[in-house]
From TrEMBL:
Lineage: Bacteria, Pseudomonadati, Pseudomonadota, Alphaproteobacteria, Acetobacterales
Residues found modified as N6-(pyridoxal phosphate)lysine: 35
Residue stretches spanning the membrane: none
Domain of life of the organism encoding this protein: Bacteria
Name of the protein this chain belongs to: Pyridoxal phosphate homeostasis protein
Pfam families (alphabetical): Ala_racemase_N (PF01168)
Known role: Pyridoxal 5'-phosphate (PLP)-binding protein, which is involved in PLP homeostasis.
Provenance organism: Humitalea rosea
MF term (GO), any: pyridoxal phosphate binding
Length: 222
């Protein structure tokens, strides 16, 4: 299916999910996850009116986005993948939103990069809501202490939370938990929901859904 058409379908599904939840569709931002797909795919999406994109690797994003940004000033880039501390400066230089802040060392590196560059991407803390050992994200039980440390020890403004529920689990309780923590902490951005579960995420209050394969097609296996 052409990208313009799959984008239109996803937008319709987002609007319908908002309608069912009694939410304003304008309150949900579609982050089009273009990882592994070439710049041509991003250009096709831009032509169809999509301006917010997500990438999970700094290197790949650095190769694709700066040239596109010059031609499309409204373009917004979210970095959504696990971030190595030594990539923090490049991430801060490149991203409008970093969704994967998940440990003290990374918070320190991002804080340094913000001070040095004068550039301040919005920051989301990624929570490993399933407490899966192999997965990025701060463990559930440490999330509130980590948020406090980001603010108080590192002087970072945190805008929201992000999660990726366990692949085999019902995502709903994970989404509900994340939304509750965001509300408790007064955090406006809640990034949750992917191709397979974004409607459930919207029902639970997602403000940002990260949709890749349902827009750009299947990715080669990693
Ligand atoms: C790849 C990715 C997505 C998009 O996944 P799809 O299932 O292709 O929609 C969303 N969030 C993160 C963090 C990802 O790495």
């Amino acid at each position: 299916m052409p990208i313009a058409e799959s984008l239109a379908r996803i937008r319709e599904r987002i609007a319908a999910a908002c309608h069912r939840a009694g939410r304003d569709p304008a309150a949900v931002t579609l982050v089009a996850v273009s990882k592994t797909h070439p710049a041509e795919a991003v250009i096709a999406a831009l032509a169809a009116g999509q301006t917010v994109f997500g990438e999970n690797r700094v290197q790949e994003a650095a190769g694709k986005f700066p040239a596109l940004r010059a031609a499309h000033p409204a373009l917004q880039l979210h970095l959504i993948g696990g971030l190595q501390t030594n990539k923090a400066a490049e991430a801060v230089a490149l991203a409008d939103v970093i969704e994967s802040l998940d440990r003290p060392k990374l918070a320190a590196a991002i804080a340094t990069a913000i001070t040095r560059s004068g550039r301040s991407p919005r920051l989301l803390v990624q929570v490993n809501t399933g407490d899966e050992p192999q997965k990025a994200g701060i463990p559930r039980a440490e999330a509130e202490a980590f948020l406090r440390a980001c603010r108080e020890d590192h002087g970072l403004a945190i805008s929201g939370l992000m999660c990726i529920p366990p692949a085999e689990a019902d995502p709903a309780p994970h989404f509900a938990w994340l939304a509750e923590l965001a509300s408790k902490q007064g955090l406006p951005m809640i990034s949750m929901g992917m191709s397979g579960d974004f409607e459930t995420a919207i029902a639970h209050g997602a403000t940002h859904v990260r949709v890749g394969s349902a827009i750009f097609g299947a990715r080669p296996p990693v």
